[in-house]
Design brief:
Trna Endonuclease, Chain: A, domain 1, 22 helices, alpha/beta, Serine Threonine Protein Phosphatase 5, Tetratricopeptide repeat, 5-stranded mixed β-sheet, elongated, about 450 residues
Length: about 450
């Protein structure tokens, strides 16, 4: 009787093992093939449902995780797909349905999409080992090395990509950008030109070419490149801002303003770095046009969003008096003819008569003589005036040059008047020389007398 029981147990165990074998070897592959067929026909919801059922029974089922992830991708749920792909990576097993190379390509793209670039880079380096002749793997690895500020490695991988395919536009573009950062403009330009030769519709390459040409002071060429770059909606705003600053460098302020305003209108949201930079550039244009009310409006807006942005706080401080001092505001903002009349009024207030005027950068220079004879001298003495309307402190170099002008004109006395201040070095230098320095506070007092 005991032998019969033992025999029954052995037979039962054998049947169980056989059943498990049949399920594992015969039924499981068929079930996974069925899952693959459902996915192939676009029945993603059924794939998701069945894959989850399989995973309840076997959480280490690589194929179920794989098709679940792919179905999530097809249903535009990449974050869920990434979770499944991470599990497959942890399992480290691959099958005839979940093949390693296609899986790693998709995994790399997902990691990059969710800014997990370290993981994406690992995938591309593994792919390079599996398929060392694929130039795209080297290019993508190079891009990720560049994003991690590992320029030397990025350079090597871009070069390897070009060795495998000399017509790879992305690798040439990557090299061009790296060479530009290394201050090798001619080599950078050559690489970007090759990139455009093989992919002339790559508007990002046009954008980088524009920036390079702008750095090389080829503003006309830069503007042509930025115009093409604007066809890409993703970089249109950046291209417009770069165009605007190119016009600024060309001193075409009206065109710069209209271009920057186009960019401003396209920027979504009010607190991005792009809107701040755009409005800052606009403020500089208005400052140079002497439209200080508009310049101040932009600075106040920027300050309300980010008080530490560039020198905005300093600008507002420098122009603070314009809000309460109308005479200084007129001095700073008047057109050239009006400004010259204000300066002549100051000279008359100081008891001098104008003899000659000359426009200079950020102001004017006037030769005058005393309005009345001095009892100490038999004739009226000449004096050279320099009027400046700037916000930066006047340095010693400016005072030195002014004294040279006085010597050339054989004038023994000079006065520099500025809407800003003088540096300590400039004050010490002028202290023992025949030139008087009149800074903003004293100028404001004189202006009030002129206006009165």
């Amino acid at each position: 009787m005991g032998n019969i029981v033992i025999l029954i147990i052995i037979v039962g165990t054998a049947i169980g093992a056989l059943t498990f074998f049949l399920i594992r070897v015969v039924l499981h592959p068929r079930a996974m093939e069925g899952l693959a067929a459902l996915f192939k026909h676009g029945k993603n919801q059924q794939v998701i449902k069945r894959a989850k059922q399989f995973l309840v029974k076997d959480s280490r089922n690589v194929d179920a995780h794989y098709f679940l992830g792919r179905a999530y991708l097809a249903e535009d749920k990449p974050e869920l797909a990434l979770m499944e792909f991470k599990i497959i990576n942890q399992l480290g097993q691959f099958t005839t349905l979940c093949r390693e190379v296609p899986f790693r390509k998709q995994a790399a793209e997902l990691f990059h999409k969710f800014n997990q670039d370290d993981e994406a880079l690992k995938e591309y380096l593994l792919l390079i080992k599996k398929e060392p002749g694929k130039e795209d793997y080297y290019y993508n690895a190079g891009s990720l090395f560049e994003a991690r500020n590992m320029s030397d490695k990025a350079f090597l991988y871009y070069r390897k990509s070009i060795e495998l395919n000399k017509e790879h536009p992305g690798a040439h573009q990557g090299l061009g950008i790296l060479l530009s950062k290394q201050k090798k403009p001619l080599e950078a330009k050559a690489e970007l030109e090759i990139a455009l030769k093989y992919d002339p519709e790559n508007y990002k390459t046009h954008y980088y070419m524009g920036r390079l040409l702008k750095e090389m002071y080829d503003y006309s060429g830069a503007l042509r490149s930025f115009e093409k770059a604007q066809r890409d909606p993703e970089i249109k705003v950046k291209a417009l801002i770069e165009s605007g600053t190119s016009y600024m460098s060309m001193n075409n302020l009206d065109r710069a303003i209209s271009t920057l305003e186009r960019a401003e209108n396209l920027i979504a949201g009010n607190s991005t770095i792009e809107i701040l930079y755009c409005r800052y550039c606009l403020s500089l244009c208005y400052e140079r046009k002497r439209d200080l009310d508009k310049a101040i409006q932009h600075w106040e807006y920027i300050y309300s969003i980010k008080p530490t942005f560039r020198d905005v706080a300093k600008k507002l401080s420098q122009y603070q008096e314009l809000r309460t001092d109308d005479s200084m505001k007129d001095y700073m903002t008047s057109a050239n003819e009006g400004f010259l009349e204000i300066c002549k009024g100051i000279i008359r207030t100081l008891k001098f008569e104008v003899r000659d005027t000359k426009a200079i950068k950020n102001g004017c220079q006037i030769t005058a003589v005393e309005a009345e004879k001095n009892w100490k001298t038999p004739r009226r003495m000449p004096c050279l005036f320099m009027f400046l309307r700037v916000t930066d402190a006047i340095d010693e170099y400016t005072v030195r040059n002014f004294l040279e002008e006085m010597k050339k004109s054989r004038i023994l006395r000079g006065i520099i008047l500025t809407s800003s201040k003088f540096t300590p070095k400039a004050v010490r230098y002028a202290d023992t020389r025949p030139v008087d320095l009149v800074q903003n506070d004293k100028l404001s007092s004189i202006l009030k007398k002129v206006k009165g």
